[in-house]
């Protein structure tokens, strides 16, 4: 029988679904928008509880939920990923690490990269890629599938802005396993051959390997040229130091890049789904 939410009045309303499986099956069948909408209508427009990816979770909804989360980061709430996601995306050494430590690098210069002056640098890149993408992927076709093409465009743009990578072959070597990884992130976390989650783990490993090659090559390039000014995020990450004056490791940088890539794709998919 599906598990009902606890009778504890301090917990939000909702159900945790079946033991082990939780409500992963319902999520897969309905899709995220309908899954959330149905439970908002049934339980609460503000917050409800469920069980996904092997974890008990509370889902905050609407403007009130967003405001609560964004105004209470590291006060009442903190960044978190289910263990199944960490296993698929991060290096094994970081699977049990506090996500606050994993994302420390990203937070350290969020302000700098989001300043209007910095954002202006991205406009020519976005404009050039948009024109190139439309000419290559849209114009020759009588019918186009917007969703997959928009995902492809977003990933290419992320590679250019985050990594400074423009080589189509390198982007493809990242994109193919990245798709495997992200498609299996919200599946039932059972690591058996043939499962979506197993493919996600394999895809994540290939993404990390490719990123490590890119990072090592870029670090070598920066050392040889002794350059300190770069537009792409990867180069900035390689040049920034922590509170102890030490450079971040290649693995730490890879973890943060993966987080940015996942976030960019999720942000793009939400308004289109």
TrEMBL record:
Protein name according to UniProt:
Beta-amyrin 28-monooxygenase
| Molecular function GO terms recorded | heme binding; iron ion binding; monooxygenase activity; oxidoreductase activity, acting on paired donors, with incorporation or reduction of molecular oxygen
Question: What is the species of this protein?
Answer: Sesamum radiatum
Tell me the Gene Ontology biological-process terms attached to this UniProt entry.
sterol metabolic process
- Pfam families, alphabetized: p450
Q: What InterPro entries does the record tag this protein with?
A: Cyt_P450 (IPR001128), Cyt_P450_sf (IPR036396)
Going by the UniProt record, its keywords in alphabetical order are: Iron, Metal-binding
Instruction: Say which domain of life the source belongs to.
Output: Eukaryota
């Amino acid at each position: 029988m599906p598990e009902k939410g606890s009778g504890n009045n301090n917990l939000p309303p909702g159900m945790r679904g079946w033991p082990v499986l939780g409500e992963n099956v319902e999520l897969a069948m309905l899709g995220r928008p309908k899954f959330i909408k149905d439970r908002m209508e049934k339980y609460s427009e503000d917050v409800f509880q469920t069980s996904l990816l092997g974890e008990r979770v509370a889902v905050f909804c609407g403007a009130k939920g967003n405001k609560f989360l964004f105004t209470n980061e590291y006060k009442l709430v903190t960044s978190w990923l289910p263990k199944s996601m960490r296993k698929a995306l991060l290096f094994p050494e970081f699977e049990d690490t506090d996500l606050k430590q994993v994302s420390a690098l990203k937070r350290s210069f969020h302000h700098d990269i989001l300043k209007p002056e910095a954002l202006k640098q991205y406009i020519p890149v976005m404009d050039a890629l948009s024109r190139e993408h439309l000419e290559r992927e849209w114009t020759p076709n009588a019918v186009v599938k917007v969703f997959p093409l928009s995902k492809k465009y977003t990933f290419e743009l992320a590679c250019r802005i985050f990594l400074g990578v423009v080589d189509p072959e390198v982007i493809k070597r990242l994109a193919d396993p990245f798709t495997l990884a992200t498609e299996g992130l919200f599946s039932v976390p059972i690591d058996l051959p043939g499962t979506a989650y197993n493919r996600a783990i394999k895809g994540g490993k290939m993404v990390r390997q490719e990123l490590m090659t890119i990072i090592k090559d870029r670090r070598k390039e920066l050392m040889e040229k002794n350059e300190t000014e770069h537009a792409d995020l990867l180069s900035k990450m390689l040049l920034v130091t922590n509170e102890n004056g030490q450079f971040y490791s290649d693995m730490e940088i890879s973890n943060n890049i993966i987080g940015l890539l996942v976030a960019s794709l999720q942000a793009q998919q939400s308004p289109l789904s």
